[in-house]
Design goal:
Blueprint (H helix, E strand, L loop, with lengths): L1 H20 L5 H12 L6 E3 H10 L6 H9 L8 E3 H9 L5 H5 L3 H9 L1
Antiparallel strand pairs: 1-2
Helix pairs in contact: 2-3, 2-5
Length: 115
């Protein structure tokens, strides 16, 4: 049951992110942009609560209790935090973005991903 919910949540995330990104930036970059909004220390990680807020911001509504078991699968160390670059990589089966390594702005990211 939990794996079905995880699959459903991941599918919803991919669909919503693709809709919101509107081909202006890559889906992966959109995830990073959305999560960075809640990453007040620019640490590359967000708490489960911050992740929950990011989901609501893009129109995916579940309770925190519903998503915690799913988030725990992305948090193998059990820190209560999600590395959103790794999450984006997993969600879209992409390589780790140069943006994470160099802290590119959204505008620079558009240029980098379109080259």
């Amino acid at each position: 049951m939990a794996s079905e919910f995880k699959t459903q949540l991941e599918k919803q995330l991919r669909e919503k992110i693709s809709q919101k990104a509107h081909n202006k930036i890559s889906d992966e970059a959109y995830v990073i942009k959305a999560m960075r909004f809640f990453d007040i220390y620019d640490s590359g990680v967000v708490t489960y609560s911050q992740f929950h807020q990011a989901l609501e911001r893009i129109g995916i509504y579940y309770t925190l209790d519903e998503i915690v078991p799913v988030l725990q699968t992305y948090d193998p160390e059990g820190r209560g935090k999600i590395d959103y670059i790794d999450f984006s990589k997993y969600l879209f089966n992409s390589v780790v973005l140069k943006a994470h390594q160099t802290k590119l702005t959204t505008e620079e990211l558009v240029i980098e991903t379109s080259e």
